[in-house]
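Model it.
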Amino acid sequence: MNKGETVKGVILACVKELVQTRFGADKWKEIHEKSEFKGSSSFLAGANVDDSKFFNLLKVCSEVLEVSFDQLLDAFAAHWVLEFAPKMYKTFYTKASSAKEFIKKLDYIHEIVTKTIPDSTPPRYDLEWPSPLKAVITYKSNRGLVGLAGKLLKQVGVYYKTKLNVTDDGKDKITVIFPS
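Modeled.
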C-alpha cells in the first residue's frame, strides 16, 4: 500500500452492503463506530477514501464479525461479483457471455473505470494465454491484493457457472485454468 493512494467509495459501499445483508445492521453500526470513519456511514461511489482507512475497515470487520481476514475477502469477493457489481456495472456483465470472455475484458473494464471516475486507481491487468485454457494474469497495483484479485476471478467463474482453477503466487501473478 502506498501512502496517499485511495480507493473509491463504491468499494466501501459494497463492504457495508455485505455486512448488513449477511450479518445485520447492528453489526455494521458496531463496525462503523470502531473504524476510522466518523459521521455518516454512507459512502459516495466516486468519493476518494484513503487506502489506510479502507484496510482499517476490513480489519475491524474481521474482528467484529469474528472471521479471518481471508474469510472476509472470500465473502467480499462473492458479494462484489455475484451481487453488487452486476447492479453497478451491468453492462460489463451482459456484454460477456462466459467467464473467459469477461476475464479477457478485465483490463479494459478497469481502463474504462479509470477514464470515467476521476482519480480512480483500480488495479490493471496484463493477460497472457500460454494455451487456450490457461490465462496468466499479471496484477498491477501497489495495494498488494493479488489474493483478493484471485478470489474475485474465482467468483467470475461462479457467476458464469464455470468451475475455474485459480491460483496466485502471492506477489503479482494469477493463473486461471478453464475447464476443457
